[in-house]
Amino acid sequence: MDDSGDGGAQALAPLLAAFDAAADEGHFTRAAQRLGVPQSSLSRRIKTMEQMLGVALFQPVGRGVTLTPQGRELYEHTRDLVRALDDAVRRVRADADPDSGLVRFGFPLTLGPVSIPTLLAQFHTRAPKIRLHLVQAHGEALAEQVRDGRLDLAVMIPPPADLPTVPLGRQRIDLHVARTHPLATRAHVDLAELADAAFIANPPSYQLRSLLDTWCAAAGFTPRVLFEITEFETLRELVALGLGVALLPAAEIPHPDLAVVPIDGERDREIGLVSGDHGPTLAVARLRDFLIAHTARISL
């Protein structure tokens, strides 16, 4: 393909695709991998677009790039157009061959090592030509990507109220302590007993942190959070080292130095399969139906 272009629609489409991918990824190499083109080609397309517009669209930051003010303005006006065109092309291709296509699927950080990979492996044996683009993130990040069309489906805990959802089950939240902790051998614990405990928790934007704050407030105290961290395995390791306690779902791979103690009362949250408002391709519908039919066989 000639990267120079003359500003016509035929030449502009690959330039917009390169711009959109780079803006979304914040990194030219990852954007090129996403589009399946050499990084040199993506860089030329970005440069061609900047020359056509007479402004710089990106500026370096660390090892990646960020949008300039002019680039941000262009991205705000073009991202929905690029998403709509991408969805249209994917739907047409998927309808032509229902056994192939691309599904962009997201799932939460607490369902990574076992349950979701097991389901996806089973699905792959049934539909080996369907490609899966996987995203693992916390709840609000997944919801935003479903809303703006970057994801077709996502398992979310809990699902947002504004998106179509199919319930898949519930996830119990328990107290996690080091095996040397005084509560480690208890059969259950009342949350009020933790009023003086040091907690390790996610940042306030995470739904598990909201549950912690809400449940503790109902028990009459504000949790004393000493460590905030986004990564769950590191969080569990900090608890295992005796640096604090945490309210978490059970780990899919048990930690030998952690004890899990049930908390009195209803302490769980809904697991749902969320889809966007845009029309699904046949490949998306196939994965959606598979997950609905098979999640009961996996411990979620």
UniProtKB/TrEMBL annotation:
PROSITE patterns in UniProt: HTH_LYSR
Family: Belongs to the LysR transcriptional regulatory family.
Residue span(s) of domain HTH lysR-type: 15-68
Protein name per UniProt: Transcriptional regulator, LysR family protein
Entry-linked Pfam families: HTH_1 (PF00126), LysR_substrate (PF03466)
UniProt keyword annotations, A-Z: Activator, DNA-binding, Transcription, Transcription regulation
Keyword Phosphoprotein: no
Residues that span the membrane, as ranges: none
Domain of life: Bacteria
